[in-house]
């Protein structure tokens, strides 16, 4: 009885020491279990390491081409709002709303247009990029040609052969193409300098360079056509307003606004680099951008080691409970 009371008193007096002893026993048991299963851990880790090496070697090289762009300077005299601050009061007498001079930054708008589904779909269809985007298998460095997946696309007959379930069709839809395209294209704008970088990563370095060049050309063309169409509509509207008013001052303002729209159209037509000016054009890359084979091997080996340790511990504690 006295011995039991003595042990209880000892535990009450040194509870932390007792817990510490149990923790040490658990850690010793843990390391002992791992040591006993070391050969299984080594075997599983080796399998994962070899598998990751094989996987990394099988991955084809990808190449990234990029171009550095600068926002093109905008004409201060363009747009319906050019004279709004000066003649807005007089124009309102005729019931004409000239609008303000603010709005969305044209450079940022062009970047968002490049990322949009509509622009991407039109870009892919215009340049017939679908096979090189969805069915490419590898790039042949010797003759700079592309090999396609025979189960997806027949390059000779230009026919899609892939087997998919409804509602998908053998030929990929623009929604599928958009998802793939957004993974290989990058458009970034530097906040401090305002410079814009456009890059494309592809199995073929020549295709990557060509797509970047086409992207820059097409976005400048799309934004120019948009502004020209808007200026033409504005001119038509202003011409109708001139016919509906007899106030000399208002007619003078409207003629001046039409002149501004004409300047906007002329400015757009004479400049190809309408939104972006190319500072550093896209080149055919000589060095691969991916895959990072060393990183794949390291991560694969680490994953195998962790799974092996977990398997050994789980097996031990399951047997212990039984």
UniProtKB/TrEMBL annotation:
Subcellular location: Cell membrane
Transmembrane segments: 39-58, 294-318
Keyword set, alphabetical order: Cell membrane, Membrane, Transmembrane, Transmembrane helix
Gene Ontology molecular function: any one: protein tyrosine kinase activity
Record GO cellular component, one term: plasma membrane
Domain Tyrosine-protein kinase G-rich: residue ranges: 277-316
InterPro entries recorded: Bact_polysacc_biosynth/exp, GNVR, LPS_length_determ_N
Domain Polysaccharide chain length determinant N-terminal residue range list: 23-126
Membrane topology summary: Multi-pass membrane protein
Highest taxon listed in the record's lineage: Bacteria
Protein name: LPS O-antigen length regulator
Native organism: Shewanella hanedai (Alteromonas hanedai)
């Amino acid at each position: 009885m006295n011995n039991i009371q003595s042990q209880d008193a000892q535990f009450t007096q040194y509870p932390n020491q007792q817990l510490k002893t149990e923790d040490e026993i658990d850690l010793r048991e843990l390391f002992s279990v791992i040591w006993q299963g070391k050969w299984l851990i080594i075997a599983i880790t080796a399998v994962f390491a070899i598998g990751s090496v094989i996987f990394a070697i099988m991955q084809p090289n990808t190449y990234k081409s990029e171009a550095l762009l600068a926002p093109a300077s905008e004409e201060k005299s363009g747009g319906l709002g050019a004279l709004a601050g000066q003649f807005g009061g007089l124009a309102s007498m005729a019931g004409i709303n000239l609008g303000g001079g603010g709005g969305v930054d044209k450079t940022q708008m062009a970047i968002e247009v490049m990322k949009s589904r509509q622009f991407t779909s039109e870009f892919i269809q215009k340049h017939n990029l679908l096979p090189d985007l969805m069915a490419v298998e590898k790039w042949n460095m010797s003759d700079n040609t592309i090999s396609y997946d025979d189960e997806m696309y027949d390059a000779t007959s230009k026919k899609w052969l892939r087997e998919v379930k409804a509602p998908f069709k053998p030929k990929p839809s623009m929604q599928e193409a958009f998802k793939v395209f957004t993974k290989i294209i990058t458009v970034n704008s530097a906040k401090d300098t305002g410079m814009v970088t456009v890059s494309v990563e592809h199995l073929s370095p020549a295709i990557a360079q060509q797509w970047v060049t086409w992207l820059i050309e097409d976005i400048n063309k799309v934004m120019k056509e948009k502004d020209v169409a808007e200026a033409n509509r504005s001119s038509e509207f202003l011409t109708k307003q001139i016919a509906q008013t007899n106030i000399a001052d208002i007619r003078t303002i409207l003629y001046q606004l039409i002149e501004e729209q004409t300047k906007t159209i002329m400015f757009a037509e004479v400049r190809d680099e309408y939104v972006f000016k190319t500072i550093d054009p896209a080149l055919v890359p000589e060095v691969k951008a991916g895959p990072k084979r060393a990183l794949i091997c390291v991560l694969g080996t680490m994953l195998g080691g962790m799974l092996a340790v977990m398997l050994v511990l789980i097996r031990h504690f399951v047997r212990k409970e039984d």
